[in-house]
Amino acid sequence: MSQSKTRTIVALAGAALLVFVAAVAAVVTIAVQHTDKPKPELSAYAHGKSVSVRPFMYCSVHVDNNQLKMEDCDNSQSISDLSVPPGSPLQLSLPNEIFDAPWRMAVVYALPNGQAAQTTVWYSDKVEKSCQIPSPLTPEPANPGKSLKDCRALTIETPADARLRLAGIEFQLPVPARDENGQEGYVPHAVWSIRTAA
User: Where is the signal peptide (predicted)?
Assistant: First the structure.
């Protein structure tokens, strides 16, 4: 590939990243305008029981000199407990403040050897069945359809195999970040945590 084509591709990739960061900043700015409101809660339902999930951590975010800053962090470290037996789905209902923001979710499973396995799901992922997040034992979707960003309620399928138990989920609202070495990634400004293992 010629150097001019390579430079063009790198420039386009950089421009795409800047557009994404600007879009996230706009969403975060809109969300921050409502900081006087109580912190949003998730609703979780499984096996005939429901819980309101308060934030484990929640920071206000604002833009200062074209940089996102997190302040006024509430680190309550609240963890909600909800038993989810093998084969039972876990359903989450998202309030507007979460539904309208980019999110990611870590789904953690307990393995028979005492170790844990984690799957990360992003709001932009596409799934075969509307708003259903498959278990790790489910094959990859053959026909990905609806994007999770269109789902106000999510269903997390759990395996019926008791050797692979859903241990919990961590729901996050991430913002773009750059560390001191210039590496770009994401850090959460809000986290909700649900422990599902008995």
Answer: 1-25
174 beta partners:
188
Please report, in angstroms and rounded to a whole number, the separation of the first and last CA atoms in the chain.
56
pTM: 0.75
- Tell me the β-bridge partners of 119: 107
- Residue 18 exposure: Cα atoms within 13 Å on the Cβ side: 7
pLDDT of residue 16: 39
Query: What is residue 7's DSSP assignment?
Result: H
Band the pLDDT of 142: cuts 50, 70, 90: low
Q: Using the structure block, give the residue that is written with the tokens 């997390």.
A: 156
pLDDT of residue 11: 40
Query: What is the C-alpha separation between 80 and 53, in angstroms, rounded?
Result: 6
> What is the spatial distance between Cα 90 and Cα 80, in angstroms, rounded to a whole number?
13
What mean pLDDT, rounded, does the chain reach? 80
DSSP string of the chain, one letter each residue? --HHHHHHHHHHHHHHHHHHHHHHHHHHHHHHTTTTSPPP-EEEEETTEEEEE-EEEEEEEEEETTEEEEEEEE----EEE----TT--EEEE--HHHHTS--EEEEEEE-TTS-EEEEEEETT-B-SSTTEEPPTTSPPPSS--SBGGG-SEEEE---S-TTSEEEEEEEEEEEEEE-TT--EEEEEEEEEEEE---
Q: What is the band of 33 on the pLDDT scale with cuts at 50, 70, 90?
A: very low
One-letter amino acid for residue 29 of the chain? T
